[in-house]
């Protein structure tokens, strides 16, 4: 029996689906986080040139990857909302922004912890570090713009333009180590393979998948809150059991 997925493109139907899906992403994320970090910090061998300091990559690399991908997904949803006037698309973009900002911050913070023993400085105006910092500012700018405009539709349009224009920064981050003379090392894992120890690979991919699952779970939870906020005056929201319970059982 075919499932009509298009019916879930409306906030009224997506709200219930999101609530059902959250546990299926949240629990595997927690398990994989625990597994990946345990392997990375306690099982993986010491790296020959960077000693124990390299272990920060099990946080830094997944956070950096997710910070870029989340922005592209956010910009994609924002563009869909801008072009097709779909409410849920704009809500999804809004829901993704805080998590993207969190990963961008973790990327910069963990990069500083890694950079201090490797480069002798917490921060250098390296091309990749600078463009990643700009990415954090783009996330914060998107969030601030959404919050500063009272009309949700106007806020969606304005923030969508910022998200779309800002997406140009993502390929700059990715290719910066190839385009400019930079202190930041290139990709360790490539399409042609990797020289990483198998335990390092297991830890890296476990944490990376955990981050993806976490993003999905948190975004689904946040978009449900956004739906309730934006649709607060509609009858279907007032008929929800959780809303009735929050209102003290009033009809």
Estimate the strand proportion: under 5%
Coarse structural class:
mainly alpha
Give the number of DSSP strands: 0
User: Mean of the pLDDT scores?
Assistant: 89
| Cα shape | globular
Query: What distance separates the N and C termini?
Result: 37 Å
Number of helices: 9
Major β-sheet profile:
none
Number of domains: 1
Quick structural summary:
The protein has 251 residues and is mostly helical.
Task: Give an overview in words.
By secondary structure, the chain is mainly α. It has one domain (56-231). The chain is 74% helix and 0% strand. α3 packs antiparallel against α4 (127-148). It is globular. The mean pLDDT is 89.
What's the helix and strand layout?
Blueprint: H1 11-43, H2 57-84, H3 87-119, H4 127-148, H5 152-166, H6 169-179, H7 198-230, H8 235-238, H9 241-246
List keywords for this structure.
mainly alpha, single chain, globular
């Amino acid at each position: 029996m075919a499932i009509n997925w298009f019916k879930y493109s409306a906030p009224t139907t997506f709200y219930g689906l999101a609530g059902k899906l959250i546990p299926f992403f949240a629990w595997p994320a927690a398990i994989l986080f625990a597994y990946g970090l345990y392997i990375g910090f306690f099982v993986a061998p010491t790296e020959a040139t960077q000693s124990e300091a390299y272990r920060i990559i099990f946080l830094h690399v997944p956070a950096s990857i997710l910070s870029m991908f989340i922005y592209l997904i956010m910009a994609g949803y924002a563009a869909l909302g801008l072009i097709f006037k779909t409410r849920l698309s704009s809500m999804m973009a809004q829901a993704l922004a805080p998590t993207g900002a969190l990963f961008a911050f973790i990327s910069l913070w963990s990069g500083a912890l890694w950079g201090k023993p490797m480069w002798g400085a917490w921060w250098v105006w390296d091309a990749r570090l600078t463009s990643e910092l700009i990415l954090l500012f783009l996330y914060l700018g998107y969030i601030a713009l959404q919050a500063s405009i009272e009309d949700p539709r106007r806020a969606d349009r304005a923030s969508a333009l910022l998200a779309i224009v800002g997406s140009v920064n993502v390929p700059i981050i990715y290719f910066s180590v190839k385009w400019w003379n930079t202190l930041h090392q290139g990709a360790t894992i490539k399409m042609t393979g990797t020289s990483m120890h198998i335990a390092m690979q297991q830890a890296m991919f476990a944490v990376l998948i955990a981050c993806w699952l976490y993003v999905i779970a948190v975004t689904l939870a946040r978009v449900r809150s956004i739906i309730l906020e934006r649709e607060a005056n509609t009858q279907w929201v007032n008929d929800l059991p959780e809303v009735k319970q929050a209102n003290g059982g009033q009809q």
